[in-house]
């Protein structure tokens, strides 16, 4: 349980870092695109190698497939709702003069961060140890989200102190969510763990395709394809236990 709490906090730490950079450091958009592209590859690897990894019983495949479809559908529905409220650009750092609601992006970030952190607790249950790939993937994914939201909130008139306080709350929620993921699913049988893993993987792939991939390319250019491939390779190396 303590392990889930700790690693949830580590993954959520990038929210604080992203907020600080958004408020105080003029980070080039292209660099943000590069970070996002690498994170895209790592997230795809986390879904493929960790969450959709080895299936030990034949019936597990149907659970994983069903969970994957439901996860993708649920994220897409949430994405449509968030986009209508002005949060569709929550993973990009570009500033706009209109159609950019910092608060909507912040709410969208919470909707993303909490389920992602629950996955950490689930991964500890599944493998009896923390998944470095999942923690790294969520850490990288959170950074541009907090950066973008902080820029938007500052434009909307929020003070620096209030913005940082808001992200500290989200940071606490991510750690608690990892803990709750561990506690809530602790008594599930193996087949239902496959369902949860598929659910998480489907949500990750839908999120990557709809938010991170297009925005990474827009900000970083063609080289982001190579960086995404390197991120996927990093996931493979970490998952395989080579290092």
Automatic annotation (TrEMBL):
Origin: domain of life: Bacteria
Membrane topology: Multi-pass membrane protein
Protein name: ZIP family zinc transporter
The keyword Transmembrane helix appears for this protein: yes
Family: Belongs to the ZIP transporter (TC 2.A.5) family.
Keywords for this protein: Cell membrane, Membrane, Transmembrane, Transmembrane helix, Zinc
Species this chain originates from: Sutcliffiella tianshenii
Lineage: Bacteria, Bacillati, Bacillota, Bacilli, Bacillales
Main location, first listed in the record: membrane
Localization annotation: Cell membrane
Transmembrane segments: 6-24, 31-49, 61-82, 103-124, 130-151, 163-185, 191-211, 223-242
């Amino acid at each position: 349980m303590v392990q889930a709490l700790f690693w949830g906090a580590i993954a959520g730490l990038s929210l604080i870092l992203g907020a600080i950079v958004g408020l105080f450091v003029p980070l080039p958009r292209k660099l943000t695109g590069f970070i996002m592209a690498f994170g895209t590859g790592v997230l795809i690897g986390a879904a493929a190698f960790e969450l959709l990894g080895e299936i030990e019983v034949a019936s597990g495949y149907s659970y994983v497939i069903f969970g994957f479809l439901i996860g993708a559908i649920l994220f897409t529905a949430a994405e449509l709702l968030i986009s209508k409220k002005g949060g569709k650009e929550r993973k990009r750092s570009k500033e706009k003069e209109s159609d950019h609601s910092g608060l909507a992006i912040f709410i969208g970030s919470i909707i993303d961060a909490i389920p992602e952190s629950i996955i950490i607790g689930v991964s500890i249950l599944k493998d009896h140890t923390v998944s470095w790939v999942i923690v790294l993937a969520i850490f990288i994914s959170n950074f541009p989200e907090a950066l973008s939201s902080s820029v938007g909130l500052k434009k909307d008139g929020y003070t620096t102190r209030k913005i940082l306080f808001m992200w500290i709350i989200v940071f606490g929620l991510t750690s608690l969510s990892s803990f709750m993921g561990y506690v809530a699913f602790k008594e599930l049988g193996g087949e239902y763990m496959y369902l949860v893993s598929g659910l998480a993987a489907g949500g990750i792939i839908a999120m990557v395709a709809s938010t991170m991939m297009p925005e990474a390319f827009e900000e970083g250019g063609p080289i982001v394809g190579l960086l995404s491939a390197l991120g996927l390779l990093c996931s493979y190396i970490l998952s395989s236990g080579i290092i």
